[in-house]
User: Fold these one by one.
Assistant:
Number 1:
Amino acid sequence: MRFDVVTLFPGLVEPVIEHGVVGRAAEQGLVELHCWNPRDYTRDRHRSVDDRPYGGGPGMIMLIEPLEAAIGAARAANPGAPVIYLSPQGRRLTQQMLADRAQQGAAIFLCGRYEGIDERLIEAEVDDEWSLGDYVISGGELAAMVCIDAMTRLLPGALGHGESAARDSFSDGLLDCPHYTRPEEYAGRPVPRVLLNGNHRQIEVWREQQALGRTWLRRPDLLEQRELDARQQALLDEFIAATRKR
Ligand SMILES: C[S@@+](CC[C@H](N)C(=O)[O-])C[C@H]1O[C@@H](n2cnc3c(N)ncnc32)[C@H](O)[C@@H]1O
């Protein structure tokens, strides 16, 4: 999968493919990253990429022309990929949005800086707007890196263990179950016994029940969007009853 990022700070974004899961995926040729710096497409001797806002007010606004040229170069190198502007005003990111895009293929991420981008460039060039959440960061680069990491994890072969992504929180609409490793007892807290008994069927059922229970405790909104079958409902009811007894 090819990611293109239009950014004034390529040096901030590029390390995302140098480490960990994304780094390994890049080594395997599963992902590639190309950055396009609007400053390389300026025509004035100051290499200006921003200017004062019409109407006055604080901050600077990113100029249309250098962005348009950088996006044009990215589109030419990655034909058919949508231009996604990372913006606090965009659709709030979900695992499903990332999974859909990862399945469809490439993406061109547009990173804003300063007070943002001239609206006319957004109207003319942007296909979608994604937000990390209801808060404001200083630039779209961190958001682009989040998207690149989260989408890469979903590509077949990117994770060491093929099952891991499917078990992650949100992949099937639930939070993940709790996990444990050695030691068997820590500060008086033992590992749940069922995980030690070697009965894989029981362990699977316990994990499913924990995922359902955790989601009910922490993110009940996710359960509202989901229909449980009778078996899952029984597992959740048992979890709720045990929680209330405690
Ligand atoms: C300081 S912000 C500009 C915020 C803009 N004035 C507003 O309030 O909507 C600069 C850039 O950071 C990025 N950014 C900020 N918050 C973001 C968020 N929650 N999700 C994605 N990108 C964000 C966008 O690319 C934005 O153009």
Note: The first strand starts at residue 2 and ends at 6.
Number 2:
Amino acid sequence: MLKFCKSALLALSLCLPAVANDGRILVVYPGATTPEHQIVEKIFKDLRPFEAMADSYNAKFFFPRDVLVVVAETGQANCWYQPDKHRVYISYEFLDFLLKLFRAVEPEKEARGDALNTLFFVALHEMGHALIGELDIPTTGREEDAVDDFACLTVHQVGGSAREQALAAARWFAIMGARDNKDLPYWDEHSLDLQRFYGILGLMYGADPNRFMFAEKIVPERTLKRHVQDYPKKLDSWERLLAPHFRKKLPRGQNLKI
Ligand SMILES: [Zn+2]
């Protein structure tokens, strides 16, 4: 009898639909320990920028499982997506690093703005990795470049001051590229800093040449023309790859907006 029940239950379970895709992006703060990081943590908890990002992705996509965005002291000046733990790490030490970098070349107010905007751009970059990992999105070519593109496409669709996030990140790569011009990591999974600078600037120009006309003084004309052609292709690629996971398909050019 017991054996029969087990078999029946197994048969029944095989008839049931697959477990619903009801995962969520969840933001957690394990708790900062230093006074400086505790101040930043309180600001993030009050203003909820990462929660707003998570809410937007939850409204937009079906996720097969929960994904944690861990905003924390990580011991590393870095942010990353960890696929086996289904986590994105946003590091206070990385914000420290950005503040120091921008303060060396800009007044305090601009440095704070650029550091935070760069952090938010990097958060989108990591969410690009998370979408690829969690939704099993295929990539050809370098994933790091693809998720830089994803972050650019997103901030362009959001529009307004969100575009500053891409420009601040481009500034970060320009500063890094000008500073570290020897022992370049040709082997790394990331493109070189100056390549990322030109890539972000070029793609933002490709999205809206009139708005980013200043790029014509920095990036060769031939390259900018290519970005104008590439922008709609990259937009189509991301929207088509993500389409099976949308809760609701929006008109072309609006599906990455958060
Ligand atoms: Zn990355």
Note: The beta strands are 25-28, 67-72, 80-82, 87-91.
